[in-house]
Specification:
The chain has 106 residues and is α+β, with helices and mostly antiparallel strands. The protein contains three helices and six strands. A hairpin with a 2-residue loop joins β2 and β3. The chain starts with 11 loop residues before the first strand and ends with a helix.
Length: 106
């Protein structure tokens, strides 16, 4: 990624087709889980009261002027991701679930 992930905290994460972009929510922080870095996204307005983890490698474009970044992940994959659970961050089963949903980074 061209910009350090920390500079993206506070920006909005968008997804979906470019002309029908959906604001998925604000990036709240970066969380390392099982050797992967994830953005914690406040997606409550989009996923009805939950927060989601999105792998940092999934960001494909950054707009510093509009303060938003874009993910190429299909929206159905993001919907299938588990709700963020801070009590499971050290649980290997939680890591496996995230890897199964998103795959591994290259």
């Amino acid at each position: 990624m061209a910009h350090p992930e920390r500079t993206l905290v506070g920006m909005n994460l968008c997804g979906g087709p470019p002309r029908q972009s959906i604001n998925l929510g604000e990036i709240l922080e970066i969380i390392a889980i099982g050797g992967e870095d994830y953005f914690l996204v406040d997606s409550r307005h989009w996923t009805f009261g939950s927060r989601r983890l999105i792998p940092t490698w999934a960001v494909v474009a950054i707009d510093l002027v509009d303060e938003e970044c874009r993910t190429a992940l299909p929206l159905d994959i993001i919907r299938r991701s588990p709700d963020f659970d801070p009590f499971r961050l050290s649980d290997p089963r939680y890591h496996r679930i995230l890897r199964n949903v998103f795959g591994e980074s290259d």
